[in-house]
Design brief:
Blueprint lengths: L21 H13 L5 H54 L18
């Protein structure tokens, strides 16, 4: 597979029917709808909506690496914070350890 999307084929049919009797117009339109025809107005609305969806999804695709980097940074900070808490808890169990956090007074050293 080359990574290319398959070609989309469209068939545009322009039909001009007499206004009267209307049953001919209605019959042709019903048959066209049965085989999957889309009126031009509906096709225009679909194309516009598709453009908006594509723009919205492309934002996510373009921003994904930034979001992944942010999450990795948050995970590293949380791991660091847990390590500080674990160290403080271990210091409380073993007072001979000299662990100091920034901004805290230096505890007296054991001799």
């Amino acid at each position: 597979m080359t990574g290319e999307s398959p070609a989309v084929r469209w068939l545009v049919v322009v039909i001009r029917l007499p206004a009267n009797p209307s049953r001919h117009r209605v019959g042709v339109w019903r048959e066209l709808r049965r085989v999957g025809a889309i009126p031009l107005g509906g096709l225009t609305q679909i194309a516009s909506a598709f453009g908006q969806v594509q723009t919205s999804l492309s934002w996510f695709v373009n921003t994904y690496s930034t979001l992944a980097n942010w999450k990795a940074s948050v995970d590293r900070l949380l791991t660091f914070h847990r390590a500080l808490e674990d160290t403080a808890a271990e210091q409380a169990q073993h007072p001979a350890l000299d662990v100091q956090r920034d901004g805290e007074p230096t505890p007296p050293r054991l001799r």
